[in-house]
Structure formats: structure tokens, C-alpha cells
């Protein structure tokens, strides 16, 4: 057995060990607003429920290891004292991951990730319509655990109202664990799906994904592509150029055959197959290619 003194390794190494061994961890998809009412949306896997009476949830936006800066969610929670915690199921996992991209302050992650904001009843932050359970919360306490990179900040939240989709309830009005289909976080790119086990989600690009808002309407409005497909398309650094698309078509006989059929459904179906194999750039090239 390898024995390690936490002080003998880097914070990044220690964080990797912690995240890879303590899991699977539930995901708090935290919605906040700043002092000007600008929305912010970000997932946190240092999260759990700690009390039923009063109903208390706690999540921890840690200081960034690389530069010791704090996240917008923490700043907003400190300044407004309100947050909505949305749970994450499989149908929304790719878009949730995309929202963790570190866009500049003031950028609306609802738009970037393609989620639908809906008004809360008792707090200012918006709820995520696509989430099967949404908790409106008042922040009762924030406990800083340190001042260096990697230090957590426990945001203690009291639930003042919760919203549950009827689609995840059973005949007795209880939440059906199969229907809710929750996902959780592990180390690296790994996630766990309650109904099916381990799967990977490619981490958002450090150079910023283009976002779901940059995807053309003819793609977003198609019934072929679900939220996870759109999340993958939005996580590319840039849309392929016409020259790149032309080379792709020229070198790919199967793509030529799809395009020659002049059938949009076949084109969309093939693009969806690329996305299922995490080949988002090829999906983009096919979608934008002309006959």
C-alpha cells in the first residue's frame, strides 16, 4: 500500500487522489445572480444533504488550485445570500459539464449551455427548467476552510422551497430512482449513472467552448439532437472552416454518400452517430457540409 503525507505532494496531486477515491459524488448545479441580477450557473461535486429539519444542503466552491482565485458562484452567494441548487440527471449531463467552462464574469451560462431559466418563487436566482428537482435556498452561512488554492468554502443553504417534476414520481408520489436517472461525479473525466454505471464526459476546453448559443437554429431545433448532443457540439473551440469541411467531405466516401442522398434526416442521423462516439468536430463538418 502506498502511504502519502498530504503535505509531501502538490495540491493538484492531492485533489486528484481525493476526487478519484471519494465518490461517486452528487452534483449541485448552482444557479446564482450577481448584484446586477446577471445569472450564473455552475456545477459543484463537493455537495450533499446534511439535515431534514431544517432542510440543509451544503456545497463547496473551492479556490482554484492554479491561481487561488474564487468562483463567481461564491461571490454571488456572499453578496446576495441566495442560490438555487438543481439536481443533474443523465439527460442534461453534457450541457451541465459545458456550463463549468470558465467564461468571463457577466457571461450568461444559461445561454452558453442551452438551459432554460425559469423564475423562482422565493429567491432571485433562476431555476433550471430541465432539472428534475430544484431547491430554492437561502444561504445561512459560508465557512472558509483556508486561504490557499484548493481550499473549500462551505456554502450552507436552507431549502425554502423545492420543485419536483411529475415525470420522476411514482404512483405514490415518491421519487422513482429509475425515472430520475441521477448522475454523479468521480475523478478525471469519469461520471456514474445510477441506472447504468460508469461513463466519461470530456472536460470543457480551457480555451472556452463556443456554447450552445452559437449552434445554428436548424440544428438546435431538430428533433434528432438532445441536450447531450448539443452540449458536445457547444464544447468545441471553434466551428470548422469551409476549407476544413471541403477536405473532410473529399476524403470521406461515406459522407459523400450521405450528402448525395440530399436527405436531411440521414445527414442528422449520421451526425448523431459521430456525437455518440465523441467525434464532435466530424459531426460539425457533416452538419455544415453542402451537397
From TrEMBL:
The keyword Transmembrane does not apply. One of its GO terms (molecular function) is oxidoreductase activity, acting on the CH-NH group of donors, NAD or NADP as acceptor. Its cofactor is FMN. SMART domains: Flavin_Reduct. Coiled coil: none annotated. Pfam families: Flavin_Reduct. SUPFAM superfamilies: FMN-binding split barrel. Residues 22-174 form the Flavin reductase like domain. InterPro entries: Flavin_Rdtase-like_dom, Split_barrel_FMN-bd. Belongs to the flavoredoxin family. This is NADH-FMN oxidoreductase RutF, flavin reductase (DIM6/NTAB) family. It comes from Flavobacterium succinicans.
Amino acid at each position: 500500500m502506498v502511504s502519502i503525507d498530504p503535505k509531501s505532494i502538490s495540491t493538484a496531486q492531492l485533489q486528484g487522489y481525493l476526487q478519484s477515491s471519494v465518490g461517486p459524488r452528487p452534483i449541485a448545479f448552482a444557479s446564482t445572480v450577481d448584484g446586477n441580477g446577471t445569472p450564473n450557473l455552475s456545477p459543484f461535486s463537493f455537495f450533499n444533504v446534511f439535515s431534514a429539519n431544517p432542510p440543509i444542503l451544503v456545497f463547496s466552491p473551492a479556490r482554484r488550485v492554479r491561481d487561488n482565485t474564487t468562483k463567481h458562484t461564491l461571490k454571488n452567494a456572499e453578496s446576495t445570500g441566495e442560490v438555487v441548487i438543481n439536481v443533474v440527471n443523465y439527460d442534461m449531463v453534457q450541457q451541465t459539464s459545458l456550463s463549468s467552462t470558465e467564461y468571463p464574469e457577466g457571461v450568461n451560462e444559461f445561454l452558453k449551455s442551452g438551459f432554460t431559466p425559469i423564475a423562482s418563487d422565493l429567491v432571485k436566482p433562476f431555476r433550471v427548467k430541465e432539472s428534475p428537482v430544484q431547491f430554492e435556498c437561502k444561504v445561512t452561512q459560508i465557512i472558509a476552510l483556508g486561504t490557499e488554492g484548493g481550499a473549500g468554502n462551505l456554502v450552507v443553504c436552507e431549502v425554502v422551497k423545492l420543485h419536483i417534476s411529475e415525470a420522476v414520481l411514482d404512483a405514490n408520489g415518491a421519487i422513482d430512482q429509475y425515472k430520475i436517472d441521477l448522475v454523479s461525479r468521480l475523478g478525471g473525466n469519469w461520471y456514474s449513472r445510477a441506472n447504468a454505471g460508469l461513463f466519461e464526459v470530456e472536460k470543457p476546453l480551457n480555451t472556452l467552448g463556443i456554447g450552445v448559443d452559437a449552434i445554428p437554429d436548424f440544428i438546435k431545433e431538430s428533433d434528432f439532437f438532445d441536450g447531450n448532443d448539443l452540449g458536445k457540439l457547444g464544447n468545441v473551440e471553434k466551428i470548422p472552416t469551409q476549407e476544413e469541411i471541403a477536405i473532410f467531405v473529399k476524403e470521406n466516401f461515406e459522407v459523400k454518400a450521405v450528402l448525395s442522398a440530399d436527405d436531411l434526416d440521414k445527414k442528422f442521423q449520421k451526425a448523431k452517430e459521430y456525437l455518440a462516439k465523441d467525434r464532435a468536430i466530424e459531426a460539425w463538418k457533416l452538419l455544415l457540409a453542402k451537397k
